[in-house]
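COMPLEX REQUEST
Ligand: zinc ion
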Amino acid sequence: MALCPFCKLYISTKESGKNYKGKKYHPQCFEKMLDDIESGDDDQKELNDYICKLFNIKTITPLMSSQIQSFTDTKGYTLKGIHGSLYYFFNIEGNEIGEDIKGIGIVPFVYDDAKDFFESIKKAKETNSKFKNMPKTSNVKIKRPDTSVNKIDISKI
Ligand SMILES: [Zn+2]
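STATUS: Structure written out below.
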């Protein structure tokens, strides 16, 4: 049986898990992770709150705010992307905050992986909602491709 990396519970063989890079998640857990990142409207506040919770501090340190500043200014990262990277590294990959970690310098190392990860959740979510909205019975007519339109008469060129 597979262990869902998000909720740390087993996925029964009857359940269809969501696969991502060799790991299996509960479908609802998979979508929950995206909701955690996209819950609020105020990206700056969401990010600050998340960092404070993560590091168990009251306000983000000057080092952290200068790191955020430089990520957004020089690397073009979004606040949501930085939030997602930290979430990916600590909550999903399960890395722990050590005493020696004073900032969020990990972000550039995981930004692309995190982006791929959240994009794949987004895609899975869209596919799911499409299926949900589909009528139970439908006649799908497959149209024969119209080949006459693109046919070019070479002799007339
Ligand atoms: Zn789960």
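REMARKS: The chain is about 50% helix and 5% strand. The two ends are 64 Å apart (CA to CA).
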